[in-house]
Amino acid sequence: MSAIVFPPPASADKQVYVTISALEGGHLTLPERLFVTDADPNVKRTVPSLSFLIQHPSTPPHGGGSNTKIIFDLGIKRDLNKYMPAMQTHIANRQPVITSPDVADSLRAGGLDPAKDIDYVIMSHVHWDHVGTPADFERATFVVGHGTLHLLENGAPPHYPKEIFDPQLLPRDRVWEFRESPIPEVVFGPADEYVGQNAASFQGRVWRELQTAAGETIFPAVIDLFDDGSIYLIDSPGHLFGHMNFLARVGSAKWIYLGGDCCHDARILTGEKGIALYDDGTGTGRLRSVHVDTDVARSTLNRIQTLLPEKKGQGTALRRTSGTIALGGDTPVEIELIVAHDGSWREKNQHRFFPGTI
Ligand SMILES: [Zn+2]
User: Fold this and answer.
1) Which end of the chain is more exposed for a tag (fewer CB within 10 A), N or C?
2) How far is the CA of 349 from the centre of ligand 1 (A)?
3) What value does the mean pLDDT of the chain take?
4) Per-residue pLDDT, 262
């Protein structure tokens, strides 16, 4: 299987772009000490759980219209009582939690009907603050990363017990779960229980490597979702089993990278902060982080950082979360990175929320 060159050379350029809009998906409150190094132990921040609408210029699977409509992440459920009881106990530690407007409200505000108009819902992962209310999306196919369905049924103890997940979260007849990527991830549970589920949907979509023109690996496993170079789903292991990121082309040399929970604070990607470690509560003195495998999460962050331009004149390796970067090839590329819980991005970019565009 040939690698995909990023950015695409002009000669091979199919020039398919998508339109992206931010959506409100509620807010939750995070104690900084669990997320970033050198945090004030008393600081808590109420942050958004951002979702996104992506419109791709193709006939949707149910026909009608000229755009296929995709949601990336569903934010927080508008009714917190719909979470499993054990999950509600955890959520009590994340108050204040704001549930309105949710993703369905945000879509309606821009003139879309979540029940009829949304074709695909891609979940970066199935932590409570990303799964929203799937029942609102009556026609959508749900797209999840490898291991997600196993996780929903069995949990991943000790830190993610079975009781916090809802095995009925996703309609099984409308789920695509990607096959295991070539990246060695944490060994977890019986392998490949769900491989082959809805297998027809996977035809022609295989993991490929994303490389620079010079042949350097950016990501070892991406899926070209529409086979036209407009959207790459990126295997982004470390945060939670099945964690995926999303890289989409919104202009001839402009791309948006949706980082999900690769980190919860963009200062980790710029290099200003590190991943916080804290006692794992098992009485063994071991440390954990908010990631299921901290080392793997760190190596995913390192890969993402190769897409971020360096800050000029700093003398250190600090980076910016948006700007133009030369990755080799014939055109520099402009990349903007957005992580799910970036409150300052939300504040500065109100005009880019649906029906506005990014
Ligand atoms: Zn998460």
Assistant:
1) N
2) 23
3) 90
4) 97
What is residue 130's predicted lDDT score, i.e. its pLDDT? 98
The pTM of the full predicted model, rounded to 2 decimals, is 0.94
Interval between CA 152 and ligand 1 midpoint (Å): 14
Cα–ligand 1 centroid distance for 8 (angstroms): 31
For residue 297, how far is its CA from the centre of ligand 1 (angstroms)? 12
**Residue 43, both tokens:** 């600081």
Partner residues linked to 232 by β-bridges: 224, 247
CA gap 336, 358 in Å, rounded? 10
Distance 284 CA to ligand 1 centre (A): 24
Cα 320-27-152 angle, rounded to 5 deg: 95
Residue 197, pLDDT score: 44
- Cβ–Cβ contacts within 10 Å for residue 40, how many? 9
Within 8 A by CB and 6+ apart from 349, the residues are 22, 358
Nearest in space to 71 (alpha carbons), one of 30, 14, 113: 113
Token representation of residue 99: 């549930």
Query: What is the number of residues in the chain?
Result: 358
For 141-164, how does the pLDDT look when each residue is reduced to its tens digit (9 = 90+)? 999 998 899 999 999 988 899 999
Ligand 1 centroid to residue 341 C-alpha, Å? 10
On the question of pLDDT at 199 being above 60, the answer is no
Instruction: Catalogue all structural domains in the chain, each as residue range(s) with its CATH number.
Output: 4-352 (3.60.15.10)
Q: Cα(63) to centroid of ligand 1, in Å?
A: 34
